[in-house]
Amino acid sequence: MRLLVLGGTEFVGRAVVEAALGRGWDVTVFHRGRHAPVAGVRSLHGDRTAPDGLAALADGGSWDAVVDTWSAAPRAVRDAARLLRGRAGRYVYLSSRSVYAWPPAAGLTEDAPLVEGASADAGQSDYARDKRGGELAATEAFGADRSLLVRAGLILGPYENIGRLPWWLHRIARGGPVLAPGPRDLPLQYIDVRDLAAWVLGAVERELSGPYNLVAPSGHATMGSLLEACAKVTGATADLRWTDPDVVLDAGIEPWTQLPVWLPPGSDLHAALHTGDVTKALGTGLSCRPVAETVADTWSWLREIGGTAPQRPDRPAVGLDPAVEAKVLRGVPDTTP
């Protein structure tokens, strides 16, 4: 198989490239040159936001599939897809479950209503409309039968450049009392980046098309199993102080950003991020590794690179200020046996 990855040097794109090389595929990456590509790929340089930024692709060959992880102006997807529609068999666009209309219903499927106002020709606006516009661009160029829309949710694992799991690992590694947002059995829904990559390549081989929610089933992990895995793998003497959601919210702490991954139970945000229906993806071969493996491999990667995870410049830093955490914990009883 001949695969073109637009990007391919960071997080999701890198995982796709490594998985494809592991299958013996012939891989080309098109990127800006800011990060070193994976060894063994053909590398083309260009900036798709610049005039003639796709020039390196003009005579770059042909491919069985293209994987595009773009997250900004949809017209960048439009231009790439139009250029490649006669030279690639399938266009895989890494979208997001954010494309569903707000507020989402718990257990939403791929048939749920979508955000309005998106366009394949648009410049950058907000994340939901940007991703939906990218979907429209891919579908308009390749048609519904040759475009695959991967609506991923929360993505964790090695190479993460958002900082969510790395923050929890570093915080728990410091030890001491840790503000653990409850309830402990709160169901989570995420996907390991390597499981995402494996499913995408399998979908290309099977010539799948259309939209797919791509995360593990809700409850594949819980806040308890995630944070306890962090404590185990770091070997820390951390004391997880499970804290009532109302206490966390009353302290002015922002879910998702200041306490990554966590969203209060019963909220629209928790319904949107942690309760989606993934029956369709499971029926096409989605397999999800245990949370302990995701956590352990992410910790190993962090140690290999010196502990500091890369950070995307277009995403805000995540995590809770130690002073805020300490203030809240003063009111949380120690329940250690």
Quick gist of this model?
By secondary structure, the chain is of the alpha/beta class.
Question: What general form does the structure show?
Answer: globular
Helix content: 25-40%
Q: Give the biggest beta sheet.
A: 7 strands, parallel
Determine the structural class based on helices, strands and strand pairing: alpha/beta
Strand content: 15-25%
* Helix/strand order, N-terminal first: EHEEHEHEHEEHEEEHEEHEHEEHHHH
Q: How many E-type strands?
A: 15
**Mean pLDDT score:** 96
Descriptive account of the structure:
By secondary structure, this protein is an alpha/beta fold. 35% of the residues lie in helices and 18% in strands. It contains twelve helices and 15 strands. The longest helix has 16 residues, at 127-142. It is globular, with a radius of gyration of 20 Å.
How is the secondary structure organized here?
Elements: E1 2-6, H1 11-22, E2 26-31, E3 42-45, H2 55-58, E4 65-68, H3 74-84, E5 91-96, H4 127-142, E6 147-152, E7 154-156, H5 164-173, E8 176-181, E9 187-188, E10 190-192, H6 193-205, E11 210-214, E12 221-222, H7 223-234, E13 238-243, H8 245-250, E14 255-256, E15 259-260, H9 268-274, H10 279-282, H11 291-304, H12 322-329
Parallel strand pairs: 1-2, 1-4, 2-3, 4-5, 5-6, 6-11, 7-10, 8-13, 14-15
Antiparallel strand pairs: 9-12
Helix pairs in contact: 1-6, 3-4, 5-7, 7-11
Main features:
single chain; 337 residues; alpha/beta; seven-stranded parallel sheet; two-stranded parallel ribbon; 12 helices; 35% helix; 18% strand
